[in-house]
Design goal:
This protein is of the alpha/beta class and about 325 residues long. It has two domains: about 220 residues, Rossmann fold (3-Layer(aba) Sandwich), CATH 3.40.50.300; about 60 residues, no CATH class. Helices cover about 40% and strands about 25% of the residues.
């Protein structure tokens, strides 16, 4: 156990009806003040784990504690110290931004002048002060997500849980929300646990990540350390024609061949000669720095594809579009 850990998960298992093992014996710890990412594709078990940590669903077995409070006996106290930004839309489209904040504050038992000051402070920090009297139906997708984050912060939680915080947002809105998340940690010292399928998001925001696949944690560590374990880079060859030839240590998909290498510059000529010796015509070659996608490939044997993730952003975008009319 880490001395300064505020979240501890040991051998957590969740089995749904029909024997579906959504979470299969995962363990990890989150240190105070860090941004910890649970990274993986749709169906990996990320959201299920977050819902267990936030007391929304029960666990089949295992141990979960937050700041020394244990599930399920301390669920009431746990809800007082955590914030939760769900993947699904949580703001009320019939209320103004301020009224949404007011509702969230009162649900947490907050009242009086200090409550109003707290609401206005959060809206200012998240750059929503000028639109607080407008309905969310007039907001952009990024502004709606900021309002939902503001609602989750109104009671000053010590630990914030975020489920796919930027899914469905355009690149500019995504980067803007990343900055707000970083500032949240810097300004208030909030410990953040977020699940995401976005490799760039995890690399940019997280101090450490746990890579999940099929209900299990494949590996945990700082993004930089994990990338170092996966190799120093990738060699990518583009072929003239598609091939289905299998060659050890090479991932071949259509016209592209990818090789993880600790010394890509030195290895490139050798692999080029190997491809040529197999009768392949190489159109181009490039060296790419190792990414968390390469880490996922190394420790799970696969990659996170558009088929696994694209529908989530599309689903939320459609929901927002419907609400915006």
């Amino acid at each position: 156990m880490l001395e300064d850990s505020v979240v501890e998960v040991k051998n957590l298992i969740k089995i749904f009806k029909g024997g579906i093992r959504a979470v299969d014996g995962i363990s990890f710890e989150v240190k105070e003040g860090e941004i910890f990412g649970i990274l993986g594709p749709n169906g990996a078990g990320k959201s299920t784990a977050i819902k267990i940590l936030t007391t929304l669903i029960s666990m089949t077995s295992g141990e979960v504690s937050l700041l020394g409070l244990r599930r399920p006996e301390d669920d009431g106290k746990i809800r007082e110290i955590i914030g939760y930004l769900p993947q699904d839309i949580s703001s009320d489209s019939t209320l103004t931004g301020f009224e949404n904040m007011l509702l969230s504050a009162r649900l947490h038992g907050l009242r009086g002048k200090k409550m109003v000051e707290r609401i206005n402070s959060i809206l200012h920090d998240l750059q929503l002060e000028n639109v607080k009297d407008r309905l969310p139906s007039t907001y952009s997708g990024g502004m709606i997500r900021k309002l939902e984050l503001a609602q989750a912060l109104v009671h000053m939680p010590k630990i914030m849980f975020m489920d796919e915080p930027t899914v469905g947002l355009d690149p500019a809105a995504r980067i803007s929300l990343w900055e707000q998340i970083k500032q949240l940690r810097e300004r208030q010292g909030v410990t953040i646990v977020m699940c995401t399928h976005n490799m760039e998001e995890a690399d940019s925001l997280c101090d450490r990540v746990a890579i999940m696949n099929r209900g299990k944690v494949a590996v945990t560590g700082a993004p930089s350390a994990l990338k170092a374990r996966a190799g120093k880079g990738s060699i990518i060859f583009e072929l003239q024609d598609e091939t289905k030839v299998n060659i050890k240590r090479m991932r071949i998909k259509g016209k592209f061949v990818t090789i993880l290498s600790k010394t890509p510059e030195a290895d490139l000529p050798r692999y080029l000669n190997l491809l040529v010796s197999k009768g392949m015509v190489v159109k181009s070659a490039a060296i790419k720095e190792v990414t968390l996608d390469d880490v996922f490939l190394k420790f799970t044997g696969g990659r996170i594809t558009e088929d696994q993730t694209g529908w989530m952003g599309a689903r939320r975008t459609r929901r927002i579009a419907r609400r915006l009319g």
